[in-house]
Write a structure and sequence with these properties.
The chain is mainly alpha-helical and 94 residues long. It is 45% helix and 4% strand. It has four helices and two strands, in the order ααααββ.
């Protein structure tokens, strides 16, 4: 599944995986990668220490797993996240 991703898609998946409020289900919805595949991609693309730090950060984090989220969290993107149009990243206008 990861073989057909462009470098831009991989960069975006990594960015979304690092964001606290973006659940794995949002990555799966946009790119078709389930959580296990995102973990494999992160392990492949990141340096070992970066991957360990990311893995420790997201394990059990309520905001990364939709099922663990509270009822008050209704959005899946952070305010700092770039707008996405048809799975393409559009540039922010300053």
């Amino acid at each position: 599944m990861q073989d057909n991703l462009s470098p831009e898609d991989i960069d975006r998946i990594i960015e979304m995986a690092w964001e606290d409020r973006t659940p794995f289900s949002a990555i799966e919805f946009q790119f078709g990668l389930p959580e296990a595949e995102v973990i494999k991609l992160m392990k492949r693309e990141l340096k070992l220490n970066s991957w360990k730090r990311w893995r420790a950060r997201v394990q059990g984090r309520k905001t990364k797993h939709t099922q663990l989220r509270g009822d008050g969290v209704l959005r899946f993107k952070s305010k700092a996240q770039k707008q996405i149009t048809y799975n393409k990243i559009s540039k922010k206008k300053y």
